[in-house]
# Entry
Amino acid sequence: MTTQPSDRLETFPNPNPNRDYTIIMDIPEFTCLCPKTGQPDFATLKIEYTPDDLCIELKSLKLYMWTFRERGAFHEAVTNEILDHLVNAIDPRWMKLTMKFNVRGGIYTDVVIEHSK
# Structure
């Protein structure tokens, strides 16, 4: 069992592909680095999606999130990158990603992106 960061998102077959339902995942421990200062940025992610044929495997999602810890990324860019990777991995019917970044310089930032087929 690996505990190393990995950009490989594993999937598994949707157990009920004939039904629309929503999977909601909260990830409270996301970190990346500010590309200007190199200081850590902390965020909570909320992933909501209606699967089609595939679902995201949770352990691989956790290891994927770890890949951002030592990377500089603007909030808007990292949110779009994560959504793109998730959509490419499972091609959901619908997906929404909300990233709520902790305060930085007296400003809270939320970035919300939706995808639909």
Notes: Residues 49 and 95 are 4 Å apart (CA to CA). The first strand starts at residue 11 and ends at 13. The longest helix spans residues 75-90. The chain has a mean pLDDT of 95.
